[in-house]
Specification:
Largest sheet: 4 strands, parallel
Number of strands: 6
Shape: globular
Pathway: Nucleoside biosynthesis; alpha-ribazole biosynthesis; alpha-ribazole from 5,6-dimethylbenzimidazole: step 1/2
Pfam families: DBI_PRT
Order of helices and strands: HHEHHEEHEHHHHHEHEHHH
CATH superfamily: Nicotinate-nucleotide-dimethylbenzimidazole phosphoribosyltransferase (CobT), large domain
Family: Belongs to the CobT family.
Strand content: 5-15%
Catalytic activity: 5,6-dimethylbenzimidazole + nicotinate beta-D-ribonucleotide = alpha-ribazole 5'-phosphate + nicotinate + H(+)
Enzyme class: transferase
Length: about 350
């Protein structure tokens, strides 16, 4: 199975003519220049990416990818693995945080099951794209075979294609997988050349001893897999099916001209993998929030990212990105609907 074309073909670029027009418009709206801060930047960025003078983010697509992790055999999670399958059912029944937020936003939500230890019965609102019953134990072997990696990447790209076919203007990815903060931290350590002690956090709620155990497991994994810095090799060795799918969904969205609002730690690590493969992807990314997971700041720094929110969140599921959507909507409404000084008959600071 070949890689999706978005991983090997050039990505589209922002149109500087539209972003410059948006910047000029911001300078003549009835406000002091720069007074709306990042909201101005968001509108300018979206105008350039969407190649329009009227940027907007609706319709919004949220795709949550779920999978289990073999590294849970090392005792690195406060929750048992069957929670992954149970949460997939919770997503489908509308009881999860991201389900509530999607309803509040009027956003479309899809859930993709890539492989769980626990059984997941057929569910109307869950796409069954199971690759295996979770990854292998990254501390002792490659987490994914080459074929499994390609399947996960294909799944993410197909999610981006569905979003494009449905006319979505903003894509957000979410994650569910007990053990995935260990996997994401290991990837971040490998790509950023940092120690587990600098990046590992409590994940689902580990105590200090649990975090120490997680660090030890990640250190063993890094030693096992060597110093290769190729992003796809690192992803296969240390990643999860859902992390790989997220990376490809992010890349695939950009390839189809859809800006991406990046969630917290797990999704940011997936974005880092994708950006290392295609650096031009970075301009398609907006960052929703700063996670309470300690490794997130290092990933944000590596991506030169300034998130919109810092609420101490660490839930995953795409929840932090969903909370930030109203800010993007506000940025677009202000840009599109505010009067200029000339329109309103208001004197600007030059006395015009």
């Amino acid at each position: 199975m070949p890689l999706p074309s978005c991983w090997t073909q050039p990505l589209p670029s922002s149109d500087t003519q539209f972003s410059e027009r948006a910047r000029q418009r911001q300078q003549v709206l009835t406000k002091p220049r720069g007074s709306l801060g990042q909201l101005e930047d968001v509108a300018i960025t979206l105008a350039g990416l969407q190649r329009t003078q009227q940027p907007q983010v609706d319709p919004v697509r949220i795709a949550v990818f779920a999978a289990d992790h073999g590294v849970c055999a090392e005792g690195i999670s406060a929750y048992p693995q069957e929670v992954t399958a149970q949460m997939i059912a919770n997503f489908a029944s509308g009881g999860a945080a991201i389900s509530v937020l999607a309803r509040e936003l009027g956003a479309s939500l899809e859930v993709v099951n890539l492989g769980t230890v626990g059984d997941v019965p057929p569910l109307t609102d869950v796409r069954d794209e199971q690759i295996a019953a979770g990854t292998a134990n990254l501390a002792t072997t490659d987490a994914m075979t080459p074929n499994q990696l390609e399947q996960a990447l294909a799944s993410g790209d197909k999610a981006a294609a569905r979003a494009a076919d449905d006319g979505c203007r903003l894509f957000m990815g979410g994650d569910m997988g007990i053990g995935n903060t260990t996997s994401a931290t290991a990837i971040a350590c490998a790509l950023l050349e940092q120690s587990p002690e600098n990046l590992a956090g409590p994940g689902t709620g580990l105590d200090a001893a649990g975090v120490s155990r997680k660090c030890e497991v990640i250190a063993r994994a890094l030693a096992k897999h060597g110093n290769n810095r190729d992003s796809l090799t690192v992803l296969a060795s240390l990643g999860g099916f859902e992390i790989a799918a997220l990376a490809s969904a992010i890349m695939g969205s950009a390839a189809r001209g859809i800006p991406v609002l990046v969630d917290g730690f797990i999704v940011s690590v997936a974005a880092l993998v994708a950006v290392r493969q295609q650096p031009n992807l970075r301009e398609w990314l907006l960052f929703a929030h700063r996670s309470a997971e300690p490794g997130h700041q290092a990933v944000l720094d590596a991506l030169d990212a300034r998130p919109l929110l810092d609420l101490g969140m660490r839930l995953g599921e795409g929840s932090g990105a969903a909370v930030a959507v109203p800010l993007l909507r506000s940025a677009c409404a202000l840009h599109n609907q505010m009067a200029s000084f000339a329109d309103a008959g208001v004197t600007d600071k030059e006395g015009n």
